[in-house]
Write a structure and sequence with these properties.
CATH class of the largest domain: Alpha Beta
Number of domains: 2
Number of helices: 22
Bound molecules: adenosine-5'-diphosphate, magnesium ion
CATH superfamily of the largest domain: P-loop containing nucleotide triphosphate hydrolases
Structural class: alpha/beta
Shape: elongated
Mean pLDDT: 86
Helix content: 25-40%
Largest sheet: 5 strands, parallel
Distance between the termini: 77 Å
Low-confidence stretches: 12-20, 522-537
Length: 537
């Protein structure tokens, strides 16, 4: 059994040393949100001076040759004038990005005897090099650190800026360094290794962001309540209303009333952001993601994809909010592509023999005008011809609508409302949401279900038993509006959330009536029919 070796301390080789001309170092390739170990071998032999990198590497990895050459020379090492081959194995795995620079450089120093080969072979090294030999962070540190721990290596050497992120992985020795020379000296035992970095702290929870608070919103009692229900039960929400009435404003206030990220969720969000290159700073992600892709986005931009699978907006919104503003403008294939992530909570991207899995548990919020001109239901202002409106609604009642639990009309606030006091504050809403979520965690403990919106039919039967009066209310709704079986389940899930916000153990008729008033549209039951009905009421 190999003894763990503290860096910065010289040691005797504990196995027959490999031939002086061949060195091995471990690096990692990103594969979706996971990392896969890659052995970087460097072979140096007599021949015309050459430097080749082989093993299904992308352009940035080939370019590593130039960076490695300059970094090695500028760090005061020799660059061997011989035939150098760097092989990245296994060959079938695609190697992407500049994160292999450091491994290739360290392997080269070892193969040329400038660092003892036995000192590097049980280390993972991950980072980009500048021409001057400084280490630069590469994407995906957290995933790489998890991979290094799984392999049981001595530790991971990486750029200092990312050391705290890597140290989130318990039981992994992390060495943060600033330059190639420092890395070489630490591995060779010529310089004491820096102490184990402190893991990233959780950033302060984003409380009371004064500039994004529900107290900015005037009027809109009903839409705000729908927003709270969406937050409390994890329900998807569609807001329909004329332009300039505050739909976008409302959607942006959803993350602020969601409960804070748990530690496990924060680590997952950080890993995703790190792989996507969005993670700055040393702290764990604290805020729930809020992603608002433009309506011109492609299907693969939305759900992930590409020749080398990268996370899409649905994954960047994992544990947070995906906001589709101007829903009717999105291309149909993009919306179609969202069905799987909405249904399964994940996307599988298959490329050749490999499948990458991306998690996609987000709350969907969508906003749209009620008709092409935007003013249907707002007095007499609408100028659209009836067929235009009908066509518009056919587009809207497309692929997503039957996944959305809550539909709310957002009407122009009256002059009195605009001049009046706000109806709510985010701090108050957040506390209601927290209490309702706590009831759900207790209810669903051990089931793998997190919130009411994801109750299966079995959980519904178990947790939403209906008293005869409640059953009667539903039956009446059924007869009035042809409630389908799916529509009924949807109403019951929302009713359960309304009851949770009420602190009620049982779902009562008033909860069901409330849920019905926020009811989803069956196919053919278009948002505008509802907006119209509401305006008329
Ligand atoms: N109900 C409201 N209360 C306060 N301000 C509002 C309200 N509705 C709209 N506004 C103001 O109008 C601006 C535009 O609103 P927005 O949310 O973009 O409307 P929509 O998305 O419905 O077109 C907001 O930034 C805000 O300043
Ligand atoms: Mg808007």
């Amino acid at each position: 059994m190999h003894n763990r070796h503290e860096p910065g301390v010289p040691r005797e080789p504990d196995r027959p040393s490999v031939a002086a001309v061949l060195a091995r170092v471990t690096a990692f390739a990103l594969d979706g949100l996971e990392s896969r170990p890659v052995t970087v071998e460097v072979d140096i032999r007599a021949g015309l001076p050459a430097f080749a990198v082989v093993g299904l590497a992308d352009k940035a990895v080939y370019e590593a040759r130039e960076r490695v050459r300059a970094a090695v020379l500028n760090s005061g090492f020799d660059f061997p004038q011989r035939r150098i081959t760097s092989n990245l194995a296994p060959a079938y795995l695609r190697k992407v990005g500049p994160g292999f620079d450091l491994a290739i450089a360290v392997g080269l120093l070892a193969a040329s005897g400038q660092v003892p080969a036995h000192a590097v072979e049980r280390w993972a090294v991950f980072g980009e090099l500048s021409l001057g030999g400084e280490l630069r962070p590469a994407r995906g540190t957290l995933a790489v650190a998890e991979g290094a721990r799984r392999l049981g290596l001595d530790g991971l050497v990486l750029p200092g800026e990312r050391a705290a992120e890597a140290a989130l992985v318990e039981g992994l020795r992390v060495v943060g360094a600033a330059t190639l020379r420092e890395v070489a000296e630490v591995l060779a035992g010529e310089r004491p290794a820096p102490p184990q970095p402190t893991p990233s702290p959780a950033a302060a929870a984003p409380t009371d962001e004064a500039d994004v608070d529900l107290s900015d919103v005037r009027g809109h009692e009903e839409p705000i309540e729908a927003l709270v229900i969406a937050a409390a039960g994890g329900h998807h929400l569609l807001m329909v209303g004329p332009p300039g009435t505050g739909k976008t404003m409302l959607a942006r206030r959803l993350p602020g009333i969601l409960p804070p990220l748990s530690r496990a969720e924060a680590i997952e969000v950080t890993r995703i952001q790190s792989v996507a290159g969005l993670h700055a700073g040393p702290a764990l992600a604290a805020a729930r993601p809020f992603r608002a892709p433009h309506h011109t986005i492609s299907a693969s931009g939305l759900v992930g994809g590409g020749a080398i699978p990268a996370p899409g907006e649905a994954t960047l919104a994992h544990h947070g909010v995906l906001f589709l503003d101007e829903l009717s403008e999105f291309a149909r294939p993009a919306l179609e592509a969202l069905r799987q992530p909405l249904e399964d909570g994940q996307v599988i991207v298959v490329r050749g023999q490999r499948a990458s899995r991306f998690p996609t548990r987000f709350t969907l919020v969508a906003a749209t005008n009620p008709c092409p001109c935007g003013f249907l239901g707002d007095g007499e202002r609408c100028r659209c011809a009836e067929p235009e409106v009908a066509r518009y609604h056919r587009r809207l009642s497309g692929p997503l609508i039957d996944r959305i639990d809550l539909l709310v009309a957002v009407q122009r606030p009256s002059a009195d409302e605009l001049a009046g006091p706000p109806r709510s504050r985010s701090a108050v809403a957040r506390e209601r949401v927290r209490a309702a979520r706590e009831r759900q965690s207790r209810r669903f403990a051990g089931t793998g279900v997190a919130c009411n919106a994801r109750m299966t039919a079995r959980l519904l039967r178990e947790h939403v038993p209906l008293a005869p009066a409640t059953e009667a209310a539903l039956r009446e709704a059924h007869e009035r509006s042809a409630l389908s079986a799916r529509g009924r389940q949807r109403v019951l899930r929302v009713a359960r959330t309304v009851a949770d916000l009420d602190g009620a153990a049982r779902v009562a008729p008033n909860h069901v009536l409330r849920a019905l008033s926020l009811r989803q549209h069956e196919p053919g039951d278009t948002p505008d029919a509802r907006v119209g009905a509401r305006a008329a009421a």
